[in-house]
């Protein structure tokens, strides 16, 4: 007995939770360390009551494991959560060993319980770290695969060991057909010698490479690409080359087109070099709700702001103040509809200068069609914007010449129109003088004649004013314009011309002013061209009528219809009448309707033509009402 008491005291001193059970698994001993850990006396956990110390979610598993251990008589380490004296469940390891009698029958089971909560937490933290690393790598791969450029990497000997999805999509081949030296099969045979020479030279003596050449696409066509790569050391200390191939087919065509002269060639090469050296590979990604989470170094260097200031929704501070609200509305619509919508805006460079950029975006969707991430690029379009402005100026100049030409063609009718009030002025002035002569003096008749002189003088002045308004060359002014008044002035100018052709003009106009946003002179030119075209297409007769109808729509648009009863437009010509230099007239130059389309589209509207039944044609165009138009200032 003293020996047993001494043994129990030793077991209680062991810095581990020791226990024993009968051969059938009933707990009959737990040392003091065990009892203090669970905060229960032995009587409360003896027998099968020891199950009460385990987490409810672990009971079935632990019970099955314990029965299997007793059946197989084989020790096995199991893990489960035990409720500590403070009520907190902690992960523990349960280890056991059987004691046999001489016949090999299990007499008792002995074991220990080890608290492994800290180890489990460390293991879980390690798993989370590995999962985060895997997610980061996957996110990086998604970014690289979503870039709208061909991304690649190569070994020190120049053979390719990686190409992104854009590369595979462009070539239409599996990766194994491109990797190693397979990419050479896709280069144009005429370009390979020079490209390989440059590539080998840079592999041996440089840390970067720049070249260009043609690559065969999945559609069987070669396109010009600009190659840019740099030699870097990856995370494992291995030297590799990383680079991109950027499609410059359009730029290359422009370069070839400018080879007409030596000066043009030098200028083209200079511009192409500048463009290639500044091609904006500015990539970004956003969360599904539109918050910026990644922007590459190229744009950060361009704007000169740390990433911390533009992350989340801070990127709006990069845009021109006049563009911010428009950009915000556009981006919110893209995020809400999940449909990309390229948009132009001005971005502030690090030196304070604003430049125009085109922002393109594309959603990455999961199997259910939900946006997982937004990816996009920012492309510098400053030069294109300036070219568009130059084109608009050229169109304005051409429109002015066309107006003068039209007025010249109407010179006889205009002269006749002016001649009428002038002759009336002469007649009424003579009548006035006659009533003022001595012996025939009649002051009332003289006053009436003078009033007619004044009236006819104003009438002649109105005609001259209308002609001067149409002929003047003034900058475009988008302002509040009464369309009804502008139309009446055009009809007044054309009255004599239309009467000489025996044409009747029927208008359906509101008695109240109809205000639109536009340039009065340009809108008058559209009306002048359409009415003259209708007049020239309509022969004199009982049904010779031109109808002009204005309809104000609920969506903030005004639709204008100019319809005639003339010879109409052939079905195969309907889609071409607005093309520049296309005409159905024997003496026409084909610019009138093209100018009309340019003016209408510049006003944010659209214009179209259709044939009337049984004869004639209709031209319709739309404008925005002044009240419903949001003006970019």
List the helices and strands and how they pair.
Blueprint: H1 2-13, E1 17-22, E2 27-30, H2 32-38, H3 42-45, H4 59-72, E3 78-83, E4 89-100, E5 106-115, H5 117-146, E6 150-154, E7 160-163, H6 165-171, H7 192-205, E8 208-216, E9 222-233, E10 239-247, H8 249-257, H9 262-277, E11 282-286, E12 292-295, H10 297-303, H11 307-310, H12 321-337, E13 343-348, E14 354-365, E15 371-380, H13 382-409, H14 411-436, H15 443-471, E16 479-482, H16 483-500, E17 504-508, E18 515-518, H17 520-537, E19 545-552, E20 557-564, H18 592-602, E21 607-611, E22 617-624
Parallel strand pairs: 17-19
Antiparallel strand pairs: 1-2, 1-5, 3-4, 4-5, 6-7, 6-10, 8-9, 9-10, 11-12, 11-15, 13-14, 14-15, 16-18, 19-20, 20-22, 21-22
Helix pairs in contact: 8-9, 14-15, 14-16, 16-17, 17-18
């Amino acid at each position: 007995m003293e020996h047993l008491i001494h043994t129990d005291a030793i077991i209680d001193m062991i810095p581990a939770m020791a226990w024993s059970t009968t051969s059938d698994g009933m707990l009959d001993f737990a040392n003091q360390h065990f009892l203090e850990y669970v905060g229960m006396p032995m009587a409360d956990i003896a027998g099968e009551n020891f199950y009460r110390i385990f987490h409810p979610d672990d009971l079935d598993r632990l019970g099955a494991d314990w029965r299997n251990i007793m059946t197989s008589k084989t020790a096995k380490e199991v893990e489960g959560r035990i409720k500590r004296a403070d009520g907190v469940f902690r992960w523990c390891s349960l280890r056991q060993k059987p004691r046999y009698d001489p016949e090999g029958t299990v007499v008792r089971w002995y074991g220990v319980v080890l608290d492994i909560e800290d180890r489990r937490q460390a293991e879980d933290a390690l798993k989370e770290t590995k999962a985060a690393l895997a997610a980061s790598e996957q996110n990086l791969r998604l970014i690289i695969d979503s870039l709208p450029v061909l991304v690649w990497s190569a070994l020190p000997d120049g053979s390719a060991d990686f190409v992104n999805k854009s590369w595979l999509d462009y070539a239409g081949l599996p990766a194994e057909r491109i990797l190693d030296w397979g990419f050479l099969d896709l280069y144009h045979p005429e370009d390979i010698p020079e490209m390989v020479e440059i590539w080998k030279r840079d592999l041996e003596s440089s840390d970067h490479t720049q070249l260009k050449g043609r690559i065969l696409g999945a559609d069987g066509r070669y396109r010009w690409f600009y190659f840019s790569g740099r030699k870097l050391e990856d995370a494992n200390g291995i030297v590799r080359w990383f680079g991109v191939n950027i499609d410059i087919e359009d730029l290359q065509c422009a370069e070839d087109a400018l080879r007409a002269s030596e000066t043009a060639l030098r200028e083209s090469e200079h511009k192409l070099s500048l463009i290639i050296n500044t091609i904006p590979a500015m990539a970004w990604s956003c969360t599904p709700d539109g918050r910026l989470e990644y922007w590459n170094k190229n744009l950060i260097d361009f704007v000169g702001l740390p990433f911390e200031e533009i992350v989340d929704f801070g990127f709006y501070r990069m845009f021109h103040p006049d563009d911010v609200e428009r950009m915000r509305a556009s981006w919110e619509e893209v995020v809400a509809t999940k449909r990309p919508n390229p948009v132009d805006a001005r971005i502030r460079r690090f030196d304070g200068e604003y430049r125009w950029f085109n922002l393109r975006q594309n959603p990455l969707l999961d199997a259910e069609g939900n946006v997982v991430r937004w990816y996009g690029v920012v492309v510098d379009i400053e030069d294109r914007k300036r070219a568009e402005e130059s084109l608009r100026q050229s169109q304005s100049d051409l429109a002015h010449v066309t107006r003068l030409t039209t007025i010249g063609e109407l010179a006889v009718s205009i002269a006749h129109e002016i001649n009428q009030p002038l002759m009336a002025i002469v007649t009424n002035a003579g009548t006035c003088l006659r009533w003022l002569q001595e012996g025939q003096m009649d002051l009332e008749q003289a006053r009436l004649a003078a009033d007619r002189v004044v009236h006819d003088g104003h009438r002649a002045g109105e005609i001259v004013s209308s002609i001067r308004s149409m002929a003047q060359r003034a900058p475009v002014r988008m302002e509040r314009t009464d369309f009804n008044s502008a139309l009446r002035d055009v009809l007044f100018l054309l009255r004599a011309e239309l009467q000489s052709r025996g044409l009747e003009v029927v208008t359906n106009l509101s008695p109240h002013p109809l205000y639109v946003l536009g340039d009065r002179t340009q809108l008058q030119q559209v009306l002048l061209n359409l009415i003259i075209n209708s007049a020239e297409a309509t022969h004199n007769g009982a049904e010779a009528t031109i109808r002009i109808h204005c309809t104000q729509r609920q969506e903030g648009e005004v639709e204008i219809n100019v319809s005639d009863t003339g010879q109409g437009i052939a079905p195969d010509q309907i889609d071409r009448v607005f093309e520049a230099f296309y005409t159905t007239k024997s003496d026409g130059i084909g610019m009138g309707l093209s100018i009309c389309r340019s003016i209408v589209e510049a006003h944010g509207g659209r214009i179209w033509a259709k044939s009337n039944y049984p004869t004639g044609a209709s031209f319709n165009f739309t404008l925005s009402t002044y009240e419903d138009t949001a003006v970019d200032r």
